[in-house]
Each structure stands twice: as C-alpha cells, then as structure tokens.
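SEQUENCE-TO-STRUCTURE ENTRY
===========================

Backbone structure tokens: a row of integers, each naming the local backbone shape at its residue.

Task: work out the structure tokens from the sequence, keeping to the layout shown below.
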Amino acid sequence: MKDKKDHYVSAFQGVMLTLNCLAVVLLCVFIYYTTEKIRGDYHARTFLDSVKAIPEDPKYNLYICLFMMGILVITFILRQFWKEQKHRWVFATLVLDLMICIQIIWQLDFNYNGLLLLVFANVISYVKDGKIKLLFVSLAVVGYLIADHNLLSIYENLYAVSDYMYYYSSEKQQYLFSIYDIVISLNIILFIIYCVYVINAQRSTIEEVHQLYKELQTANEQLKEYADMSERMAQTRERNRLAREIHDTLGHTLTGISAGLDACLALVDVSPDETKKQLELLAGVSREGIRDIRRSVHELRPDSLERLSLEVAIRKMIVEMSQVSGVQIYFDTEEEHLKFDKDEESAIYRVIQEGITNAVRHGQAGRIWISLKRKDGEIILTIRDDGSGCKEMKSGFGTRHIRERIEMLQGTVSFDGRHGFVITAHIPIRWGETYD
C-alpha cells in the first residue's frame, strides 16, 4: 500500500514538473517568436515606444531556461532513485531546485512564479525534519506571494508578457490570454489536489500541515505590512489606489482558498465527490482572483463590475464565498436599481468584499448580514457578523482601506466590535442620469 501511495505522489510531482516545464518553455518561445515577428514586420520602433521594458536577449532567455529546466528534470529523476535509500543528497537536490526556480523566475522577470509551488510540493513529500521543512516552506510561500509581476512592476522596470500578447489581433489575444490563465490555474489546481492527497496519505503529519497553514497566514500578514509600508512611501494617488485594489482582491481570494482547503480536509474521508466539487469551486475562485488582479493593475476596477451590474456582482461574490468557506452570508437591499457612478460602485463592492474577508479571516464568523439602504440622499451600508469581534479597535490594513475608500467619496464609516463586528458606512451618492 505504501509503495502504491508513493507511486501516486511521484506521478503528481511528475505531472506538476511537466506542466511547469511546458509553461516556462511556451513563455520563452512565445517571447522569442513575437520578438522575431516584430523585427520581421519592421514594427520594432512602435513596439518599443509602447512598452516599459523588453528582455535583453530573448534567445538567451530561451536557452538558459531550457538548460535549467533540464536540471530540474534530472534532480527529479535522481530523487526517484534515492528516496528508497533515504539518500543524503536528496536534501541537496531540493536546495538546488529552489535556487534554479528562483533564477528562472528572475530570468522571466516574474511573469511566471508557479515553479515555487513545485518546490513546495517536493518539500512536503521529501523533507521529514519539522524545522527544515518549515524553513523551506516559508521561503517558498513568501517567495510566491512577493514574486508577483503586477506588484513588482510598480517599482521596477519589468517586461510583461501581456505587452507581447497585445501585439496580436483581438481574436488572437483572447486565445493567448486564455492559454496563459489556464496554465496558471491548472498548476494551482494540481497543487491543491496534491496537498489534499498527501495529507490524506500521511495522517501522522496533519498537525504539521496545520502549522504550515499558520505560516501561510503569517506570510500573508507580512505581505500586507510590506504593502502598507510601500503605500506610505508612494508618491502618487494612483499608486495608493493600486495597492488597495491588489490587497482587497488578493486577501479575499486567499481567504476563500484557505477556508475551502479546510473544508476539503474535513470532507475528503467522508465524501470524495463533495471534495471534488469543493476543489472545482476553489479553482473557479482562483481564476476569478487572477482576472481581478490583472484588471486591477490595468483599470483599477473589479472584473465582475465590468461584466455585471453592482447587485449581481455582489450576490455572485457572496455565493462564491459562502460555497468555499461554509459561512452563511445574507444580503438585503430595498433599492430596485443599484446603479451608480463607477467610483461609487467600486467603493461599495470593495468595502463589502473586505468586510466579508475580515469576518471570515479574523472574526471566525459563521453568519454575515449585509444591508444596503437609501436615506436622505445617501447610501447606508451595514456589514454585521456573529464572530468574535474585538474589544479594542486597532487600525489595521483592511479597516484603514475601508475608511479611505469611504472618505474619498466624502462619506463616513464607523466600526463596532462589542458584539461580533459591525461596519456602518454613510456614503453620499451623486444621484444623476445614470441612476435609472
């Protein structure tokens, strides 16, 4: 039985390695091919004027990434021979994998960071010492959270694969972005399935896995502190807005995935079919988060509000969060039409999103009530939960962003943590021709 489980674990690792090799090679080949096409079409000057940066040598990037991916394949094969003997060189190959993955991500200007999930998966399987495993996992998780192209490109001149996609026609752009998103989502889905399987196969390590989740939450808090520090140093209002959009979307998505994984752990032995459905929901949430983060960087507006009305977007977000977290969320409004100016809709949507995220992550709430009413020319938004609340209010990253969003609309907001947690916002609305 143990040999069979080890075989499945190795198969998962092989599939993840294959997918990551394919992703890196496709990315390098695409950049190289598009660069040659631009040169062949004599559009180099026009293209250079439209982008922030370009790779120094796309052909060199392709060769060096192929070489390093080849090393990853070799270390994978060596570990398959050495794992039965518990060879001491297994640890050395893991260290080498981490260094190579970081170098590839750096070589690609952070356009793809899914390789760190591969390192994470290998560490879970091969490292038995708790402290060493914690060190590796912490490095991989923090690296995955920080090595985000959209975030780092604010402060550094990095080339973006999206700039090369925009060179093609609108129809081809749709295919290219779809392929790019599918590869990223498949890598995340495979990683989630792999984690669930390993946890189920190694029951004695459940406490260690919970500790890893705590480390993930700690890393997320560190990322918020980093974003908070970056915001204070920002020189323009647009950078402040961008940091808020990224925090809201990323925090909401990670909270939903974390809660959904806990549900999978509880269901995996009882109902594999329900576990599969839950994983499918998590995959959808991760894809939605990826689209929102990309759109936030380009347009600073949630993807759902671009495609749906405000009420439908809110209800869609509530349904998805309820499904992945198990929290009951109720939404009530007396208004027949929730249609405002774009900045007002974005603020209302983001405040509700942040309120739900805080209630689930910090308040451990089981139920959340959201009310949206109109009174005397203003909207009154109330978000209330039955969680643990807080006796002493401290201005954190999330609550401060809620306050800033409301104040940008000349509104007011108050917080009450005595019985659960209550957010009450009064937002003056510009009732005009768009409200019909």
